[in-house]
Amino acid sequence: MKKIFVLALVLTCLISNAQKTDVKLQQQITELIKDFHGDIGIYVHDLKHHKTVSINADTVFPTASIVKISILAGIMNKIQHGELDYHQRLLYTDSLYYSEGDDILSNFKDSSTIELSKVMMLMLTISDNCASLWLQGLAGGGLTINALLDSLGYKNTRVNSRTPGRETYRSQYGWGQTTPREIATIMNDIVDKKIISTEASEKMLRLLGRQYWDEEALSQIPAGIFTADKNGAVDESRNEVLYVNCKNPYIFSIFTKNNKDTSWNADNEAWVLTRKLSALLWKHFN
């Protein structure tokens, strides 16, 4: 009888802590996005009340630069196991040069040196692609990073670029792929100090809290609030995942693909929608 009572108590706790849909918020977001010209996925997690909003949240989307969270995990895993040191100096050579984008690292002179921590900062803060590809290699490459993601329970988040066997996925999704729910879960696990170790997760959170690209979702959050963010953009896909540590903390992700508006102006349809969604959520949770 006692065992039955304990089991019933456990089940009650699990049910009470289970994530429930925030119906009102779901309706508001559905109305907000109804006229979007493209495919869209959104996941919102109310960390205080364990409520969620899920719209195409398990659909796979291109990550664009959000793939750099996966690369960061790979580097932190190497640091955790003593294969890399956060403050070690690295030798930059012309073989690492990457011509696309407005990268800082690509302007380095051959045989220059730079600290690993600063390469990580460049990857996350300004989304430097030269730094990111260098770090992907230092992490062991896409196969090693994907194996780590799989071991951590992430089944949909993968690195495709420069990863043997993933050429078909790369042609469809580009550098990386994920789902709105899973990338938000990864951010949540970083916040909860569950990825690799407490120390690694805390460092990841600090690094993700230093974002140069702050004119979309971040622009709707007051400057005094701690946030951790990564966004990504290519012509037909604009994405962002954001943790907001306010009195009612929350995480949300918005992913788009097959966008009709491929412009790079501030009034790009997906970016305007991202700002509107972020403003709606800030008001809702505060």
TrEMBL record:
**Belongs to which family?**
Belongs to the class-A beta-lactamase family.
What's the protein here called?
beta-lactamase
Organism's domain of life?
A: Bacteria
- Name of the top EC class for this enzyme: hydrolase
Q: What is its EC number?
A: 3.5.2.6
SUPFAM superfamilies per record: beta-lactamase/transpeptidase-like
**Signal peptide positions on this chain:** 1-18
Q: Name one GO molecular function term.
A: beta-lactamase activity
Tell me the PANTHER family matching this sequence: BETA-LACTAMASE, BETA-LACTAMASE-TYPE TRANSPEPTIDASE FOLD CONTAINING PROTEIN
Q: Which residues form the Beta-lactamase class A catalytic domain?
A: 41-256
Tell me the keywords, alphabetical order: Signal
Q: Which InterPro entries match?
A: Beta-lactam/transpept-like, Beta-lactam_cat, Beta-lactam_class-A
Q: Which GO terms describe its biological process?
A: beta-lactam antibiotic catabolic process; response to antibiotic
- Which reactions appear under catalytic activity for this entry? a beta-lactam + H2O = a substituted beta-amino acid
Which species does this protein come from? Parafilimonas terrae
